[in-house]
Design a protein that fits this description.
- The protein is an alpha/beta fold.
- It contains 29 helices and 22 strands.
- The chain has an eight-stranded mixed beta barrel, surrounded by four helices. A six-stranded antiparallel β-sheet has the order 3-2-1-6-5-4. Strands 8-9-7-12-13 form a five-stranded mixed β-sheet, with helices on both faces.
- The longest helix has 50 residues.
- About 3% of the residues have low confidence.
Length: 833
């Protein structure tokens, strides 16, 4: 008995020492866990992160759950088998064991729910199981020699999934010590088991524990490999996801993250990306990341020649990986290129080519300097995948750059376009507010550029535009901006202008550029240009106003003869503002009833009677008063309102002539002016036919007046239209004859009825013998061509006498009648009966 007590004491002491040491190990290790979750991303925390991955694959909590269920079920099974079925054991002993098993299962579940670290909960749970092993075994000591000794194998198998070997050690010590106790205490009344048997059992347990330990090692190794692959896959997924959002603005930041995470994950010393400049056949390091203590080589790897004869470069250009675990073992010629690059020799190197659109555009690599790295399949696959991702990303960014360039630069001249110029001008205006200088805008337009396109084609025209842009850039400073605004128009922004004289000097230099010819494919082209200048802030407070005022000055320069420049002035701006105001009013004038028609009689010199009238458009604005026809007609032609207004005038005049006839007045001829814009209308003839039909006026009482500017249009076109009008029955007259581009050869081919001599020749009658000679010649020309002649602007008796002597047919002017309204004309016609 004394020996047994001594043995118990020794066993208990050994178990206590092992348990205390294991507890200290677990608690000290768990206290060193990083509390900051951010640290889990650092290389120093990789083992901890790896463990968490393992536990995610096979949850230890499930093992505890199964053990607690088994213990509670075992407690109930013990009660049923030992008391209800066996009926040999006392109720107290059965209930004690059942309570121990059930409470043991509950205790495991309680421990798992405590707010402790996983390592501490594992330690407490395993400690509890280690205590239960001898308790349960000793309860069945009378049968232990046969059966109960083997049940701890279940727990050993369960603990194969645990990461910490110390936990398996605690279980092993508890199992072996329990078997020693059973060896000492087992009764020999039922079964005779010798010391050899117990030695064999303990040996079997040791072998089982050793085998379990080895299987556990292999199992955890496979789990670690799986976790590593999962981490690698997550890294690739993360990088791929990040690369989708990479653009020109965050490219550097995201590529730095890619290089840093790759360097830390594979524990290498340097990662880098190099791109080729295929035009110059060089390559440069775009970006690199180095572990602390490793020197960057980015600055030294810039604009180095691409030498395909070198082995590394040959493999890269051939779209193959370059893999070297130990650089020192490679032949000398392989490392010769590293010597030329003047970089520190790496010990291990992995390089993957980057391809885009089936072209090698660069490479990226991983290197170590402090140790030899045995590259695994994971490294190679990762390098290939990242190279593909980089290729797609760089290709997409290049496309974005191209789109951005097209959005901000002119494709032909390579100059800034309107959008970029306007934005840049806005920011320059903001900065200019803090200086005492001006900001100048020059709006330059090439004169007659359309002739170049029509003569040598658009391709040569585009080349000419490029040459003009290059010459302009050579005149202005680098801080200034040149833009192709549209077509053959250029905008130049001049910064820090002191005064108007300095701006004029720059404009003069620009105009002098066109003194020399432009050479295109050996052919000389002489060009001129017109320019307008506006200064900020005096000529506009925003980009749109400044550009508009420069444009106004440019148009004024063109009106004054071209090949010159003008500075914007207050008078220019006022004239344009008034024109814009009138344009806006004119759009509403017709519907508001502000337009009306007056009629000026045409008197036959031989009878003194009114034989016709000319309809004259008038505009009575409620605020601006009566607006001159010399303003209304050009304004209507510029705004394309001439067509609806002209149609209204034509229909109103025809309707009025028909109304006079219905009053019993003798029919007269109604003359209506048709502008060149109206005459170009392809529906003009059908329009006039429709008006005559709606008003009921016979065509012989309508005369269409065209100007000489209309008569110089395409000859076939004008003859065709005039013949169409003649077929209707309408008569045709040329207004203001002799003032523009009269061509007698063309005149004889037109189906005309009447010539209207311009007022400037009538004014000189009686005072200028040249005007009298011209007037007489026009009358004689008309007579010889079989046309009647009308003299306009007749104001005194001498003019009437001369015209009558010269056999002019009709006169029109203030001498007889000024323009009158319809009622006054009706009264005159009724009086002459």
């Amino acid at each position: 008995m004394d020996n047994r007590v001594l043995l118990f004491s020794i066993v208990f002491f050994i178990f206590f020492v092992v348990y205390i040491l294991a507890g200290l190990y677990v608690f000290l290790k768990s206290s060193k866990e990083p509390s900051n979750p951010v640290l889990s991303d650092l290389p120093s925390a990789r083992s901890e992160k790896q463990e968490s991955k393992t536990l995610n694959i096979i949850s230890i909590k499930k093992v505890y759950g199964y053990l607690s269920i088994a213990m509670m079920f075992g407690g109930m099974l013990n009660f049923v088998s030992q008391y209800l079925i066996g009926k040999e054991s006392s109720i107290v002993e059965v209930l004690i064991l059942s309570a121990i098993l059930i409470c043991g299962g509950l205790m495991i579940q309680i421990l798992q729910r405590l707010k402790l670290s996983d390592q501490r909960k594992d330690f407490l749970s395993v400690s509890w199981l280690a205590v239960l092993i001898p308790v349960i075994t000793l309860q069945f000591i009378e049968f232990g020699a046969v059966t109960i000794w083997a049940f701890p194998f279940i727990l050993i198998i369960a603990f194969l999934v645990f990461k910490e070997k110390i936990l398996l050690g605690i279980m092993s010590v508890s199992i072996i010590l329990t078997q020693i106790i059973v060896w000492v205490m087992v009764p020999l009344t039922y079964v005779s088991v010798s010391g050899v048997d117990y030695s064999v059992r303990i040996g079997m347990f040791c072998i089982g524990i050793w085998l379990c330990s080895y299987v556990n090692k292999l199992f955890l190794l496979r789990l670690d490999e799986a976790a590593e692959k999962m981490k690698l896959q997550e890294l690739i997924t993360q990088i791929s996801s990040d690369c989708v959002g990479i653009n020109q603005q965050n490219f550097t930041e995201n590529i730095d993250y890619l290089l840093r995470t790759s360097c830390e994950f594979f524990l290498v010393d340097r990662t880098y990306i190099c791109l080729f400049d295929l035009d110059h056949k060089t390559f440069s390091c775009l970006q690199d990341y180095c572990r602390p203590g490793i020197e960057s080589s980015q600055d030294r790897i810039q604009n180095l020649p691409i030498d395909s004869s070198h082995w590394r470069m040959e493999k890269i250009l051939g779209n193959e990986l370059f893999v070297a675990s130990d650089i020192s073992k490679l032949p000398e010629f392989v490392n010769a290129e590293l010597i030329n690059m003047d970089v520190k020799f790496p010990r291990s190197q992995l390089i993957a080519p980057i391809a885009s659109k089936e072209k090698i555009i660069g490479f990226w690599g991983l290197e170590t300097e402090t140790r030899i790295q045995e590259w695994q399949d994971d490294h190679l696959n990762f390098a290939k995948i990242i190279a593909n991702i980089l290729g797609d990303t760089i290709s997409r960014i290049d496309s974005e750059k191209e789109l951005s360039y097209l959005a901000h630069y002119d494709e032909i001249t390579k100059l800034a376009n309107r959008n970029l110029f306007t934005n840049y001008l806005y920011f320059s205006m903001v900065k200019q507010e803090f200086t005492d200088t001006y900001l100048g805008i020059i709006f330059l337009d090439l004169d007659s550029f359309k002739t170049v396109n029509n003569t040598v084609g658009h391709e040569m025209g585009d080349e000419l535009l490029y040459l003009v842009g290059e010459k302009i850039k050579g005149v202005v400073a680098k801080t200034d901006l040149v833009s192709r605004f549209s077509g053959d128009e250029f905008l130049i922004m001049i910064s820090h202008v002191k005064n108007k004289d300095e701006m004029s000097g720059i404009a003069e230099k620009l105009m002098n550029l066109f003194n020399e010819p432009f050479i295109l494919k050996g052919q000389e082209f002489f060009m001129t240009a017109s320019a307008g200048i506006a200064l900020y802030p005096m000529d506009g407070g925003d980009p749109e106003a400044l550009i508009m005022n420069a444009d106004i000055a440019k148009y004024k320069a063109k009106e004054k003869g071209r090949n010159q420049y003008l500075l914007c002035s207050a008078d220019m701006k006022e004239a344009v503002n008034r024109q814009n105001q009138l344009t806006n009013f004119l759009y509403r004038a017709l519907e508001k009833g502000e337009l009306f028609i007056q009629y000026q009689p045409q008197v036959c010199l031989s009878t003194g009677k009114v034989t016709g009238v000319e309809s004259l458009l008038r505009w009575q604005h409620p605020e601006l008063g009566l607006i001159s026809p010399g303003v209304v007609i050009p304004l209507a032609e510029k705004t394309s309102l001439i067509n609806p207004i002209g149609e209204w005038v034509l229909e109103t005049a025809c309707r009025q002539n028909k109304a006079w006839q219905e009053m019993g007045i003798e029919p007269i001829l109604m003359a209506v002016n048709i502008s060149a814009s109206q005459f170009k209308n392809p529906n003009l003839i059908s329009q006039i036919e429709g008006i005559l039909k709606r008003t009921g006026l016979k065509p012989e009482y309508l005369e269409i007046e065209i100007t000489e500017s209309t008569a110089i249009l395409e000859l076939n076109e004008i003859i065709c239209k005039l013949n169409g009008l003649k077929e209707i029955g309408v008569s045709i007259a040329i207004d203001d004859f002799g003032t523009e581009y009269s061509s007698l050869g063309r005149l004889k081919m037109l189906p005309l009825d009447r010539l209207k001599m311009d007022k400037q020749f009538v004014d000189g009658i009686g005072s200028n013998h040249k005007d009298q000679a011209i007037a007489k010649a026009i009358i004689q020309l008309g007579k010889s061509l079989g046309l009647s002649v009308v003299a306009e602007g007749v104001e005194d008796e001498n003019q009437v006498s001369f015209l009558k002597t010269s056999q002019c047919d009709l006169i029109q002017g203030y001498y007889y009648y000024k323009p009158l309204d319809a009622a006054a004309i009706a009264e005159i016609l009724q009086q002459q009966g």
